[in-house]
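Reopening: structure tokens for the IPE complex, inputs below.
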Amino acid sequence: MSSFDLNAYQDVWRKRLEETLGALLDEAGHENGCPKQLADAMRYSVLGEGKRLRPFICLGALRSVGGEEEKGLHAACALEFVHAYSLVHDDLPAMDDDDYRRGRLTCHRAFGEAMGILTGDALLTQAFRILVQGVPANRAAEAVELLARAAGSSGMVGGQVDDVQEMDHVPSRDEVERIHERKTGRLIEAAARLGGLVGDADELRMEALGRYGQRLGLAFQIADDLLAFAGDEKALGRPTRSDQDRKRRTHPLAVGVEASRRRATALVEEALSALQPLGSMADVLSAIGGLVRIRIS
Ligand code: IPE
Ligand code: IPE
Ligand code: MG
Ligand code: MG
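Re-run output (same inputs, fresh job):
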């Protein structure tokens, strides 16, 4: 599995993802009633330097259950729309108040605060319009429920709410992880499961994909904390002081840098072990685990 060429795979599928994202944004932007400023802000927030981690996990999961990636492109783009919305709102002055994202001005700094809020709203809503194209009809309701739960009040939004609360004590590892697994982990878990749903996977495979996404998602947010802690602005795509300045509950703050690194590495190993029932078909997912491992070290 380690011989799998993820770069070559990503070159092919990144192109299809970017084309599909662009086409979906064009379609939304050309609809009668969509203001040009909103269409521009949506494009600005989705297109550009994103790693497209969630779409690739969705496509990799679909492939791992024997499906064709082409059928998962809309679901993958829906995940990226939700993710882009979450970043736009996360950067707002009332939240993390960040000026840069993906190497350029944040949406609200480029288009104004009201547009930042509304662009996020539009992307989230649009995601649910495109989500089910490609999902088999018998699994479509499940797909909507999955994404809504992952992104909503007991998932990403719930995690973000706890994350922005004032910190009055140094958090424990469990407290931080409880936030991380909702604010970041749930959408990554949903990406893996959604790929399974597009491929009409059975319960055993869905569980394996869910466990992989859950463990990997937590590891990914710990890696993000570590990069911010280490001041790696290039890898992060934004200035790195904000977690400390805003007194955020980060993993290294709870347990220290070395223990954080060990924990994240162990979580990646758990994610990879979860792929066992999928065998060699999980080559993409396995290679993505390797990428997260590199991000940690
Ligand atoms: C950043 O996510 C926010 C987190 C949830 C850690 P990514 O690191 O996936 O951001 P992009 O999409 O590549 O910009
Ligand atoms: C981002 O968390 C999580 C979501 C956007 C849901 P952070 O605030 O830690 O991520 P970055 O570091 O700004 O990308
Ligand atoms: Mg935040
Ligand atoms: Mg932030």
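Strands lie at 100-101, 104-105. The two ends are 21 Å apart (CA to CA). Marking as resolved unless the reporter disagrees.
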